[in-house]
Amino acid sequence: MNIKETTRGIYGAWMLAWFDRNGIHLFENTLEAFWRSFQAAILCAPIYIILIVMRSMEMEIGVAAFAAMIIYAISYVTGWFAFPYAMYHVSRILGREDRFFRYIAAYNWATVLQLSVLLAVAAVTQSGVVPQGFAIILTMAAIFAIFVYKGFIAHVGLEVRPGPATALVLLDFVLALIFESWTLRLLQAVPISSGG
Predict the structure, then answer these.
(1) pLDDT by position in tens, the chain (length 196)
(2) Quick one: CA dihedral 126, 129, 130, 131, positive or negative?
(3) Helix pair angle (162-187, 132-157), 10° resolution
(4) Burial of 81 (0-12, 13-18, 19+ CB in 10 A)
(5) Is the Cβ–Cβ distance between 43 and 6 less than 8 Å?
């Protein structure tokens, strides 16, 4: 992993998280930068694994442990490429294909921050130190903040208006739901509370 590239990518994502439009210029608009940004998947993998373990305590898995690992691994890798693939075509429809590489590079590195936030929120809400009602509010606030963050990245990365940027966030959300549903179906997973 390229440390310089990683530092630059995360710093650019951090600037965008504070709605600093200049953060987008830390990402090169090249095919090389596009592929290098998938190094973020390596950083996110441990966070993803921890989140899976935390959620598994609330789910009853209907397949063997090794099979579950394979399913999660396929889902993780496929999930990293599904949205960029969709955006390759959408960016052409929007007439923004010339900004595609920079946008996806920013999107990928921003995922490191997003998963970190989700992990922190999950740790707090599952620790039992906050009331359930507040835990729900905290989770919803984090999800909303991530939605806004992704919308801003689309806005400055592709130079589109807020409306199309919001539509892209919804597309990302729908794809995530599809992969989530597909993964849970293969796992034959059900909540423990209703699995007895």
Answers:
(1) 788 889 999 999 999 999 999 999 999 999 999 999 999 999 999 999 999 988 887 778 888 888 889 999 999 999 999 999 999 999 999 999 999 999 999 999 999 999 999 999 999 988 878 888 888 999 999 999 999 999 999 999 999 999 999 999 999 999 999 988 999 888 887 676 544 4
(2) positive
(3) 130
(4) exposed
(5) yes
Half-sphere exposure of 50 (CA within 13 A, CB side): 15
Own/partner pairs for 64-72, CB < 8 Å, 24+ apart? 68/187, 71/183, 71/186, 71/187, 72/183
Q: Dihedral of the CA atoms 135, 140, 144, 146 (nearest 10)? A: 60
* 57 DSSP assignment: T
C-alpha dihedral sign at 44, 6, 172, 75 = negative
**Which amino acid would we find at residue 156?**
V
91 Cβ contact partners less than 8 Å away, ≥ 6 residues apart: 97, 99, 100, 103, 158
The model's pTM is 0.92
Token code pair at residue 9: 């990518």
